[in-house]
Amino acid sequence: MTGPRNFDLCAYHADLAEELAAASTQTPVPTREELLSTISGWQINALHHKLGVPIPIICRGALQQGILPLRYLRNYPSLAISEQFQLAFKSVLVVGAGGLGGEVLLCLARLGVGRLIVVDPGRFDETNLNRQALCTPASLAMTKVHTAQNTVAELN
């Protein structure tokens, strides 16, 4: 079987495996007597600037090497590292980015879904401020899709 999950991300980016191994640390797992190899967000950003490798590729490469980005530590052990890696390559279509759709998008982004596709022809207005997660004063009159794209990019 071929596909992105079988592609060795670290082999493609020559220094990535070595840098990930050097940057990772052993972190205790909450509620379990276990240590995991982890990497922090600031270490991921440092590798991004040092190697010029996009952050999603660094995160996927870390997962492929058995190193868990700290942002996903609370997903473990509900999701094994191999399952978190698979999730990074999944796509989800969300129809509607308002009340329920906005919350779903935030949860999927924080969970680590690799690609989110959003369909919503609407724009945010003041009546959305009290009930829609993606609506802020700064997003008024913006399309819901554009706002969702910006918010998800900041999260994951």
Instruction: Classify the helix fraction into a percent range.
Output: 40-55%
Number of strands: 5
Overall shape: it is: elongated
Global mean pLDDT: 91
**Helix run count:** 7
| Beta content | 5-15%
Taken together, the total number of domains comes to 2
What's the end-to-end separation, in Å? Answer: 28 Å
Structural class: alpha/beta
In the predicted model, the low-confidence regions spanning at least 5 consecutive residues are none
Spatial ordering of strands, largest sheet: 1-2-3
Biggest β-sheet description: 3 strands, mixed
Radius of gyration: 17 Å
Order of helices and strands: HHEEHHEHEHEH
Write the layout of secondary structure elements.
Elements: H1 9-12, H2 16-23, E1 25-28, E2 35-39, H3 41-51, H4 55-64, E3 68-69, H5 81-87, E4 91-95, H6 99-111, E5 115-119, H7 144-155
Parallel strand pairs: 2-3, 4-5
Antiparallel strand pairs: 1-2
Please, could you describe this protein's structure?
- The two termini are 28 Å apart.
- It is elongated and about 50 Å long.
- With 156 residues, the protein is of the alpha/beta class.
- It has a 3-stranded mixed sheet. Strands 4-5 form a two-stranded parallel ribbon.
- The chain is built from 7 helices and 5 strands, in the order H-H-E-E-H-H-E-H-E-H-E-H.
- The chain folds into 2 domains: 4-86, no CATH class; 91-155, 3-Layer(bba) Sandwich (FAD/NAD(P)-binding domain).
- The chain is 42% helix and 13% strand.
